[in-house]
Write a structure and sequence with these properties.
Number of domains: 2
Structural class: alpha/beta
Helix content: 40-55%
Low-confidence stretches: none
Mean pLDDT: 85
Shape: elongated
CATH architecture of the largest domain: 3-Layer(aba) Sandwich
Distance between the termini: 41 Å
Strand content: 15-25%
């Protein structure tokens, strides 16, 4: 599943340039031109990384960054701030409100791409890792194979994307709407009940006999990959070993 980057930039020529280069590098890009619109959009769905201009119509990038850092779900969102202000005092101000990096315009596009990759590597290594693991489940992005306790799990394309998405953020609860946006995409209309159907299919494929259910249902909220799943598997394995 592609890494999602939101670019909040009102200068059209620059936003087009950023979209082109980021998509060429394999990222999924969402461009927003206004700070107030970005504030609303980011409340609905968070990207994996945010590139944020300092000066924006509606709401400044500095204020948007400050607001994001007050939201628990966005505390660790990687933020790169773009600005024409190169003075030390302005860089300090940008970093003090919560930006993780600071790039002064005009900038080198290859350098910005390198900073994006480095920040994603530090903040969420699961996003760039070829193989994801959780408990006794292993997912290989390159071969599109999933194994549990060594046996291969047959998953359809949608169930594979769901499992990949869950495994990137163990413990985090995703609403049905967030899952629809991230797995099916914003441009495709699918009823929220479809999520329940595919989660049910995923569970059926993953669980055999008395195996632990890795997916947690949070009533009224959505679904999550259970963050205690790995520990539960380890305890069960220990009990089995002790009985032999």
């Amino acid at each position: 599943m592609a890494t999602r980057i939101a670019v909040v930039e009102d200068e059209e020529a620059l936003s087009v340039l950023l979209r082109y280069n980021l998509e060429a590098a394999g990222y999924e890009v969402d461009v927003i031109a206004r700070g107030d619109e970005a504030d609303l959009r980011l409340k609905e769905t968070l990207p994996d990384l945010l590139i944020l201009d300092w000066m924006l119509p509606g709401l400044s990038g500095v204020e948007l960054c400050r607001r994001l850092r007050t939201r628990p779900e966005a505390e660790r969102l990687p933020i790169i701030m773009l600005t024409a202000r190169g003075e030390e005092s302005e860089r300090i101000r940008g970093l003090s409100v919560g930006a993780d990096d600071y790039v002064v315009k005009p900038f080198s596009t290859p350098e910005l791409l390198a900073r994006v990759k480095a920040m994603l590597r530090r903040s969420n290594p699961q996003k760039i890792s070829t193989t994801l693991t959780a408990g006794d489940i292993e997912l290989d992005r390159e071969t599109h194979r999933v194994r549990r306790s060594g046996r291969e799990i047959k998953l359809g394309p949608t169930e594979f994307k769901l499992m990949e998405f869950f495994m990137q953020a163990p413990g985090r609860v995703f609403s049905r709407e967030q899952l629809l946006d991230s797995v099916w995409g914003r441009d495709i209309y699918v009823d929220e009940r479809t999520v329940d159907v595919h989660v049910g299919r995923l569970r059926k494929a993953l669980i055999r006999g008395r195996e632990v259910d890795p997916i947690r249902t949070v009533r009224g909220s959505g679904y999550a990959l259970d963050e205690t799943f790995a520990a539960s598997v380890a305890r069960r394995s220990s009990r089995v070993a002790a009985s032999l």
